[in-house]
Design goal:
With 309 residues, the chain is α/β, with parallel strands linked by helices. The model has no long low-confidence stretch (mean pLDDT 93). It is built from nine helices and 16 strands.
Length: 309
């Protein structure tokens, strides 16, 4: 690593060694990929979604490949926060990157109790998931309306006062900036966007929807230009409202150029998800290329990259 190049990112007091984060739902709790590459090189790891109680997830088909991406209907399958804390967190914290716990729930009470448990741990940050489209209760239902989102964030903020709180936004919200501003006003320290886009697929053989849940979440390269536009617009709206907080870009980031575009659009960091299914080394390649780009262009810190400077 060139000592004159600073890849680090400060998100509400938490220092990430670089801006590349493994996205929630695609990296498990760090075990699966630790045998494939040096996971310690990542800036952060965002856990698979966690709920207060264990969930078995959705029935039927869960993953479906489509042009330029994948559809998923996992349904927040997870062992529950208590089991995660006992069996997964010790291993995860030993890997080295910042640990971001993705928190979800069926109702406000579940979110609040989950946040309280996570607040007492060694995790670095909490990512409040109010944007999952694959569950019938909770998830995206909290992220579509500004008042609803703001109310939940306010309650969760009080429950996890010792941890920086990132709120993960839904691209399906009709007035995304209003939701984002409500979250910031309610105490969000940072925002991440976007979660998957609500979509569907039909099995033409059976003439039935592929998923038991009918709709699913679309991710992958197909959504990247839209996600990039949303990050760009949100960054502008926050600035105009004097409500700037760190923005983490998500959505179809598959390579270095994708990541660079999001950083130029105003994101302070990026999460990579679906790309690791086809290229497990994608995030390491992004980090290496980012370092080379900064060296070749005589850029010393990430703050110099944004085209908005």
């Amino acid at each position: 690593m060139n000592e004159n190049i600073d890849l680090s990112v400060n998100i509400s007091g938490v220092i990430l060694k670089n801006p590349v984060i493994a996205a929630s739902g695609t990296f498990g709790y760090g075990r699966e990929y630790s045998d494939i590459f040096d996971v310690s090189r990542l800036g952060g790891i965002c856990t698979k979604a966690l709920t207060l109680f264990p969930r078995s997830g959705n029935s039927g088909m869960r993953i479906w490949e489509t042009t330029g991406g994948i559809l998923n209907s996992i349904g927040l399958e997870n062992p529950g926060i208590p089991t995660f804390l006992e069996k997964e967190l010790p291993f995860l914290t030993g890997l080295g990157p910042a640990v971001i716990a993705n928190l979800s729930g069926s109702d406000a009470d579940e979110y609040i109790k989950g946040a309280s448990l996570l607040n007492e741990t060694c995790i670095d940050m909490i990512e409040l998931n109010i944007s999952c489209p694959n569950v019938k209760k909770g998830g995206m239902a909290f992220g579509l309306d500004a008042q609803t989102a703001g109310s939940l964030v306010s309650e969760v903020r009080r429950a996890c006062a010792d941890k920086p709180l990132i709120v993960k936004l839904s691209p399906n919200a009709p007035f995304l900036s209003s939701v984002a501003l409500a979250c910031v006003n309610a105490g969000a320290d940072a925002l991440s966007l976007v979660n998957t886009f609500k979509a569907m697929a039909i099995d033409t053989g059976s003439r039935k929807p592929v998923f038991d849940n009918i709709t699913a979440g679309l991710s992958g390269p197909a959504v990247k230009p839209i996600a990039l536009r949303m990050v760009w617009e949100l960054f502008s709206d926050l600035k105009n409202a004097n409500a700037q907080v760190p923005v983490i870009g998500i959505g179809g980031i598959s390579n270095f150029n994708d990541a660079l575009e999001f950083l130029m659009a105003g994101a302070c960091a990026v999460q990579t998800g679906s790309a690791v299914f086809s290229n497990p080394h994608a995030m390491i390649e992004i980090i290496d290329c980012l370092q080379n780009y900064m060296k070749n262009n005589k850029i010393k810190s990430l703050s110099e990259i944004s085209i908005r400077n």
